[in-house]
Amino acid sequence: MKKQTIKTILAALTAAAMVCSMAGCSGKDAGTAESSASGSSAAAENTGAAAENGKDSVIVVMGPSSEPEAGFDPAYGWGAGEHVHEPLIQSTLTVTKADMTIGYDLATDMNVSDDGMTWTVTIRDDVKFTDGERLTAEDVAFTYNTLRDNSSVNDFTMLKEARALDDTTVEFDMNRPYSIWPYTMAITGIVPEHAYGPDYGTNPIGSGRYIMKQWDKGQQVIFEANPDYYGDAPKMKTVTVLFMDEDAAYAAALSGQVDLAYTSAAYSDQTVDGFSLFDCKTVDNRGFNLPVIPAGETDENGVALGNDFTSDVSVRRAINLAINREEMIDHVLNGYGTVAYSVCDQMPWYNPAAETDYDPDMAKAILKEDGWEAGEDGILTKDGVRAEFTLMYPTGDSVRQALAEDTANQLKAFGINVTTEGVGWDTAYDRAQSTPLMWGWGAHTPMELYNIYHTAPGKKYAEYSPYANAKVDEYMDAALAESDLEKSYELWKDAQWDGTTGITQDGDLPWIWLVNIDHLYWVKDGLQVAEQKLHPHGHGWSIVNNVDQWTWK
């Protein structure tokens, strides 16, 4: 693709957006807008991305936040969060399979000691970096030691040292047992020791399926297939990723200038001539915390903890049963979502005991039995405490705002008064210690459970909302200490519910999970997007996990 492509696309998009605005963007007019835009002078000057695009290249639109600010360096977030991807530029030792169990990429074998303190990994001997240098265990050790010391996103405190025993064997000595280490290995791209420096993120050298050929910051990045890739040769030889906001992405699809563009449920009732809506299931969940301790405490920084209303476990259980999640999916997500029961639905470590049915009668019965009675204004009260709370949502996040509003509307029928409030992240974390907040979570690792529910190291409660359960902590600690990854899954399940205690409906229930939002994309007719595994939180790079397998009819 020519460097001016982004400029010519934007010119065409401007024309398309103008026509779209005049036409109102109805389903019927969408086709008209595209036809009109294609006749504009801007589009006439443009040879068109679609025209440039051959049968072995593709143009993808992602959101602006998908562009890694610090570049394509694993030490500074590339490969983590919404940047999670399969080995794209850099190879990884492992990968997650469709069922979220572990498979191999660079690794050919791995073993862990009985005490969980030493991992030994054997790697392939036929891998080269794109500058022609061979990838060895020394590069693997260098990468992990570098990330241990410098990673700004991922936690590597469990790693003591990585050492190359020979060219194809690397040993990881741990500071503490960490059974889910293979999941960390799946998101850690290997960098070359001989070519790593301060500017690596802008000029990355890897051994993955693609070479980053060009990065126009704020606009686009262009990848070309690695001719020396050790796996199956990519079918898509050129992958261009454009960074646009949601409205521009929609206009890009309307104008026919791109092949795949991210979108949201807000656009799902539209039609785009020559495109269809592609629906990806996720573990990208939305839910809110309910502080389980009464108000009155503060943490070491003076942050207020607790909430007198939500500290009543009967209240939390009633709220969980009172929300009609299917209705919420229809109203807020236009049907594009699934009911969420936990932060890890459908993962190998998910405990189905988290599942509950919408049961408004039981919700009312629980509140009545616990002594909550309606006051003169219809709001429930008990011992001088009113059934009310503020539900915060991140300012600018329309989906979370709509979920918060829907939650408030539904709970009103039960005598619970909920006030919604948009907040910035600069204050949200602290305020969430006493005031429920609509969160977004979901990852391809059991550590997501740990981070949300386990007592934070050196603290009295969990990190994001005041909650502590010694038995839940015990199960999670045992899961991390288990040398058998498969067996650890059962311990993660026990942490959720063991028949007596846990974090589900019959347990402490410190969080209410609502929905997993589907990730939606406009896909040009003829483009065959390979089957997707469950996407994690973040509408980002997961879509190109297997872009090398995409084809055109």
Provide structural commentary.
With 553 residues, the protein is of the alpha+beta class. It folds into three domains: 5-67 and 217-280, no CATH class; 74-202, D-Maltodextrin-Binding Protein, domain 2 (3-Layer(aba) Sandwich), CATH 3.40.190.10; 285-517, Roll (Dipeptide-binding Protein, domain 3), CATH 3.10.105.10. 27% of the residues lie in helices and 22% in strands. A seven-stranded mixed sheet has the order 8-9-10-1-11-24-12, covered by helices on one side. Strands 4-5-7-6 form a four-stranded antiparallel sheet, covered by helices on one side. Strands 16-23-13-22 form a four-stranded antiparallel sheet. Helix 11 links the parallel strand 20 (388-394) and strand 21. The protein starts with a helix and ends with a strand.
Summarize the SSE layout with pairings.
Elements: H1 5-23, H2 27-38, H3 41-45, H4 49-52, E1 57-62, E2 94-96, E3 102-104, E4 107-112, E5 118-123, H5 137-150, E6 159-166, E7 169-174, H6 181-185, E8 210-216, E9 220-225, E10 238-243, H7 246-255, E11 260-263, E12 275-280, E13 285-289, E14 297-298, E15 304-305, H8 313-322, H9 325-333, E16 337-339, H10 360-369, E17 373-374, E18 380-382, E19 385-386, E20 388-394, H11 398-412, E21 417-423, H12 425-431, E22 438-441, H13 447-453, H14 470-481, H15 485-496, E23 511-517, E24 519-524, E25 527-528, E26 551-552
Parallel strand pairs: 1-10, 1-11, 20-21
Antiparallel strand pairs: 2-3, 4-5, 5-7, 6-7, 8-9, 9-10, 11-24, 12-24, 13-22, 13-23, 14-15, 16-23, 17-18, 18-19, 25-26
Helix pairs in contact: 1-2, 1-7, 8-10, 9-11, 14-15
